[in-house]
Amino acid sequence: MNSFVAIMCFITALFFSTATIAQTVAQSQLNCPIPNGTSKDLSVVDVFVDLPPCTVCSGSTITAPLKMTIHNGTKSERTAFSLYGTLSAGALLNGFAGTIVVCVGPITVKSDEDIGFGIGNQTFTVGMITFNCTSDLSLTNNVLAWTDASGTTTDRCADFFEATRCRDVQPKCDTASSINIRQPLAASYTTTEGCTGASQGKIKITPIGGTAPYTVVLKKNNVTVATQNNVTTSGYEFTGRPEGTDYSALITDATTPTACTYTLSPITLGSVFCCVSPTQGTNPGDVTKCPGESASFTASATGGDPAPTTQWQKKAPADAAFSNLTLAGVYSVSVNTLNISSTTGLNGYQFRAVFTSAGCAPVNSNAATLTVNATPGKPVVTYVPPTCTETTFKVEIASPSAGTYTLRQTSGGVGPVTKTYPADAVAGKIVFSGLTIGKGYRVTLTTSGCVSDAETCGDFTGVTGAITQKAQNENFQAIAPPTVTAYPNPFNSQVKFVVSSPVSGNGSLEVYNQLGQRVKTVYRGFIKAGTQNFELSLPTKQKSALFYVFKVEDKQVTGKLLQLD
Q1: Per DSSP, which regions of 357-479 are E strands?
Q2: What's the rounded Cα separation, in Å, for the pair 453 and 9?
């Protein structure tokens, strides 16, 4: 008889340990971050979604029973146990979201008893939970509270539901910062795009639910490309992957005796086009002009993907920074050359080219300065008639300015004749004598390459060499190009240049390598019309072919040099 009673007591305990006697879910009203508990008699061992083993997450949401296993560390029964916590966003427990309170009971299993859930453990059905099966599921900021063995579960749970302060749950209480809710095995993924065609993409697989640790097999077009063992719930990132739309992942958990699997498919890994910045090649050089003349600046870049675009910028003397140049008015562009049809009003302006391969940082050329020298004023010329014994006349400039004065007469007269002040001054004056009577005169002043308006006496229309500054600018393009002869070529360490220029003006003779880098400036300054000689010494053998560039005003001629070993 005593044996029968003992068996019936055990069966009764087993029934009440697995069935729900009284449990309710409600919205929590408790405001007690850190309760003052005097014991840690009871704790939560496990919270899990109760579904058949290896249930496949086949939809966006799942609704299933939620169970909680409680451990009793004493040999005393408890009428009720409650958990206050915050449910994962998007999840509902019996229709409640956010901060909830769960109360179950009675806890009849003691610390030395095992009814199939582990020694001292008892499992309760809490309610029905609805959640997204590819999202983490947890309870956070948890407060645990329990009673003694007195009263009924219904009454004691009612008290827990109305608790608002710490003293309403003390002293039999504790905390649990975070409790993971076990759910069916699933997984999510994120991708990081790499450069197109460079196999730089990343795919991160994050297992959800099931039993850790996990094995993750990454496949492309159903062919295994990588395997990673012992993956935690933090996930694993596969790197060095090419772009594609045919990736999948097979996740296997550690459930025993039979492991569960989950297939994540399809996985799409995109890519982005990655640019390559260009390299600065030729930089524009400084230019000196007279008002009204044209000017040009040339710059270039090498490489770059995609092919770089060119944006010219300008900076006025009063500007703090460069600004984009609008191609209108006096400005136009031909390939990588900025053309300025008139330099009037642009003295001191700086210009540079900006090369940009889409998406990459731009590359700026060096800034080049445009110097526009002032046009000198018309000379004040005094006619000095011949004496009774003279057959020629004179003209003089009584208050000359620094520069070169040029006198011409019409056909049959003298000229052109030049005199420089102060070198050719006589008693502080510039005097032209021996002039043919009846052939008039025309006098101009040239300073820094700029020619003044002419002081004339007589009709100089159609007279060769007797043109105005305006006509000189308009006809500049018709003048024959300069020529350069370099010898010997090939050369060892020295080479001579014979330069012939049809015009006078500021110019330069420079030598560059194949990279567009300037190797040597042979000459920079004023170039007289006619022939001039220059020499270059290069004792160090260059590693690439050389090119010379001769410029005078807006004329340019180039040629190739070869240095012997």
Answers
A1: 363-364, 368-372, 382-384, 392-397, 403-408, 417-421, 430-436, 441-447, 450-451, 455-457
A2: 128
Could you tell me whether strands 331-334 and 350-356 are parallel, antiparallel, or unpaired per DSSP bridges? unpaired
Structure tokens at 473: 């600018």
pTM of the model: 0.49
Distance CA 515, CA 280 (A): 10
3-state secondary structure of 269: strand
3-state SS class at 563: strand
pLDDT tens for 242-275 read 999 999 999 999 988 999 999 999 999 999 888 8
Q: What is the pLDDT of residues 531-548, one digit of tens each?
A: 899 998 887 777 667 888
Single-letter amino acid, residue 177: S
DSSP state, 184? -
Architecture (CATH level 2) of domain 483-561: Sandwich (2.60)
Query: Residue 91 carries which DSSP code?
Result: -
Residue 464's pLDDT band, with cuts at 50, 70 and 90, is low
Q: Give CATH for domain 186-272.
A: 2.60.40
Write down the number of H helices and E strands in the chain.
Answer: 3, 44
* Topology (CATH level 3) of domain 382-475: Immunoglobulin-like (2.60.40)
